[in-house]
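tl;dr need the bound structure. longer version: we got a ligand (S-adenosyl-L-homocysteine) that a collaborator sent over and nobodys looked at where it sits. i said id run it. heres the input, straight from their email, havent touched it
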Amino acid sequence: MPRAGVSGKFRQIAGLSLCYDRPMTDRPRLRLFVPADLAADADLALGKEQSHYLANVMRAKAGEAVLLFNGRDGEWLAEVTQAAKSAVRLAVRHRTRPQAAEPDLWLLAAPLKKDNTDLVAEKAAELGASALWPVFTRRTVAARVNAERLRAHLAEAAEQCERLTVPDLKEPAPLERVLAGWDPARTLLFLDESGRGAPLAGAVPAGLLAILVGPEGGFAPEERALLAACPFARPVSLGPRILRAETAAIAALAVVQAVAGDWRTPPRGA
Ligand code: SAH
């Protein structure tokens, strides 16, 4: 579990919000993404980071219930059997939810300033993106992305929002290369602040989808021309106001999920 990029403070803040935000149900307050296979009676030794989180930050004790998911086997109830500070063990009990199909929706986003990139990763996970792909454009200011840190944010958000998967983080790449290798079966909804695109809500086709959002400085004219030449790319608009890139990413994911995604499914499949 790549937790190293996330500070203890962040974990603590996340842990607290997890406690306070959770509605009054008897669901366990702890939920973790683990790489291991999940099956009844499995015995799991957590890594150092997750052990620290459970034992020190959340002060879990032997006997406490924890929900687990790995993106493949659904969600499982487990019980802490050993709560040592750097070596927590869990016994897997029974499955609470089967693995279910999720929308195939990618978010391609130009890296932003660090905190905003983290925000986009967190919100992409909450809003049900299946993959996050950092894409370098002409006006992208950030020179690199910290993949480990982003993966940790994706996992953390997936744990809190009760998803059964963690979005896939794709290898950061320049826009030209991404477009050159594109699968034409996937429609690329390109958020075009020039206003030339159709309103997003009426322009979402069925099938495989991706959303592309530009950096703080927007897209360069050459990039717009390049996208216009791609038959799989569709320019779309988010209305009359110029949104910050992180707002545009969040708004677009929400619109697509409402119009063609899984927003008709109630929380927890109730
Ligand atoms: N600096 C640019 C704006 C960039 S906004 C300018 O002044 O024109 C950052 C990104 O958010 C854009 O590249 C685009 O992908 C998206 N975006 C912001 N507002 C939008 C809108 N109204 N419609 C579509 N995309 C928008």
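gonna send this back to them w/ a short note. The helical segments are 8-21, 48-57, 114-126, 147-161, 175-180, 221-228, 245-260.
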